[in-house]
From TrEMBL:
Organism domain of life: Bacteria
Coiled-coil intervals, chain numbering: 402-429
UniProt KW Coiled coil keyword: yes
Phylogenetic placement of the source organism: Bacteria, Pseudomonadati, Thermodesulfobacteriota, Desulfobacteria, Desulfobacterales
Full protein name: Toprim domain-containing protein
Keyword Cell inner membrane: no
Keywords, in A-Z order: Coiled coil
Matches recorded under Pfam families: DUF3987 (PF13148), Toprim_3 (PF13362)
InterPro entries documented for this protein: DUF3987 (IPR025048), TOPRIM_DnaG/twinkle (IPR034154), TOPRIM_dom (IPR006171)
Amino acid sequence: MTTETESDFRNAIAEHGPAPAEIVADGNVHRYDIDEPGDKAGWYLLHGDGVPAGVFGNWKTGVSTTWCAKQSHEMTEAEQAENRWRIEDARLQREEEKAKSQARARTKAVDMLAMAGPAPADHPYLVMKGVAPAGLKVLNGNILVPVVDDTGAVCSLQTMSPDGQKLFLTGGRIKGCSYTIPGNGDLYIGEGFATMASIHAATGGTCICAFNAGNLESVVKTVREKNPTAPITICGDDDRWTNGNPGRTKATAAAEKYRCRVVFPEFNSLDAKPTDFNDLAMEKGLQKVKRQIEAAGPAENVWPDPMPLPDGLPPVASFAFELLPETLRPWASDIVERMQCPPDFVAAAIMAALACIIGRKIGIRPQLATDWTVVVNQWAMLIGRPGVLKSPAMEAALAPVKRLAAMALERYQNEAVEYERTKIAEKLRAEAAEKAARAALKKNPDADLSHILGFEKSEAPTMARYMANDTTAAALGELHRQNPNGLLVFRDELVSLLKMLDREENAEARGFYLTGWNGDSAYTFDRITRGMNLHIPAVCISLLGSTQPARIAQYVKAVVNGIGDDGLLQRFGMTVWPDTGGKWKDVDRWPDSEAKNAAFKVFDRLSRMDPFTIGAHQDNGPDGAPDGIPFLRFDEAGLSLFRDWRHDLETRLRSGDMHPALESHLSKYRKLVPGIALICHLADGHNGPVGRPKVLQALAWAEYLETHARRLYASVEAPGTVTARAIIAKIRKGALPTLLTVREVYRRKWSGLTDLETIKSGLKVLVDHDWMLETQKNTGGRPTIEYQLNPRTEGLK
């Protein structure tokens, strides 16, 4: 029986084209026929539980559409996060299925071509269309047209039977692929083989078959990229008999976007419902085809619409309190409302504070069977202009930690008083023992003194520390040795610390901090301080501080240019750089005591936490003794979600599409995400394995933090944007021509335009946003790259 959800989803599919007869809401990819029986070109995936959501599309066109039973504004943050990850899960399933289908089609196509022979000129299909074989092959009576990608590799086949029936291999790739009939230097692009074979016979040009109107733009894009200055003519079909005339609309759009001529066949009679240049050739002959193509003018708009030039910084996601542990949301919200500060600052500081208290008490193993253990310590950086309340936000978030520190100091002072009393008693006991030992030795020089001198001595109390401020690395190491659970380093101005660690004489300190980020690695100071060689079995440093945009931008620029490229900056996974506009209101009231006390209880519980009472496990060493820190793992649902996310992350990291600095930053999310999941799990008082809800919460954190990381590293691109605007300003003042070269800009030596690489980066921004066209001018020697201003930028800012 069809449910209302399945019916609504099917109706949504039907609005875009043929829909399957039956919908299965099981979260898996299902395929169905669209154009003809057995093509399996349609696909869908529907999750029926929770807020129903799904995706559907067409393999042939590559178009897909998402669907949800609720509008975004009707969903909670948790539901929105769940919906986003369902869509991502669907994308991964779709891509996996698509890759398998394309691989099968590719193998089949290669095998069929190997078995095929040359197509004869008298093949019924070729005779019917009046065209030559043009290098095609035939197998079992069917013409084979190779579907080839831009590298020349065969991806699939189109078969054409003697009676004209055309079929592509099931699941084979079509988008971006084509078949080329080689000719002279003129380039012609159209849809079907017969159409382009007729144009080749009429013009002698190189004719490229895109197979269908939906694939025209992809093929034209590839050809234009390989031939940036060559004239290209798109020979479109006039599908006047088809709703929307896709042949004409797609050809015109591609011509406008990629600066091509476009031409459509004109017929004296429409009785036979002709559409393409093969129909024209069969009706009026090849000379008619040639004359119509030669008479074609350029597309009406050969220049694309320019995109807005980017601002210096990209947008960031706003903070949602649902990211925080549920137990701490009222407290955090109360702080933000009273201070009127960005919630991002309070939240990041809270997460660093929680990480400091948990420290090395317990870790998480993100995989099912390995010993890879993540320690939850966090490095948080708050970025904002002076006066946006970064410091007060951090102070408020650290209040529970400082309360624990005050309690620890009081305990230490009481223990110190007791220790002084004990020391006096031990001194007297030692003096008495010494006298007794001397007396015993007088009687018997070989007397056993162990029962006289073997009394135990008390150890001096150690004050529990949670935080350290302005201290040297060696002193921090000594504090750490006394507090093996780890420490939070709190620096109000972080860039000063980073620059200090960059100096060559502080290489040892830098190494100590880098090791401390791991949370589980040993470190030994090579220099002996105050007579002791500092060895720390496992360094665990959480780091919290703030800085200003101008200071961090300068530091980031140095990092991305190769200075300090060991990933110190990239370890600040909890970096927030929020927008600080909006309305201010005067809030003058007492803090929410109930929320504050509840938060203090969370921190107190975590400080006294026994990991084994909440289901933690611990390895045993070779001698059978406990070894390493206790740990939890994900439950089955949480592990599945984490694996899917990590697969996507690792794929992105290997794509080569990101700046190396950002790539390095996001690679640290392998530790960030499981760590956040465990923090939220423990702060909310859960026991046992970490479940799917907390993994979702951590993934929402990662999605949010990535936007802030992109803003952090946007200084890599910001100079290009500034330069781009400077070049446009010079052109509009008449100081530069509308057609220029890099040298023409460089030799003027204007302020901000004195560096070749900077000028090139600015021109690249203009080209990428369609403000300028990059062309290659052949002068007989080394080609010259020219940049032509898009006339449609007039009046744009």
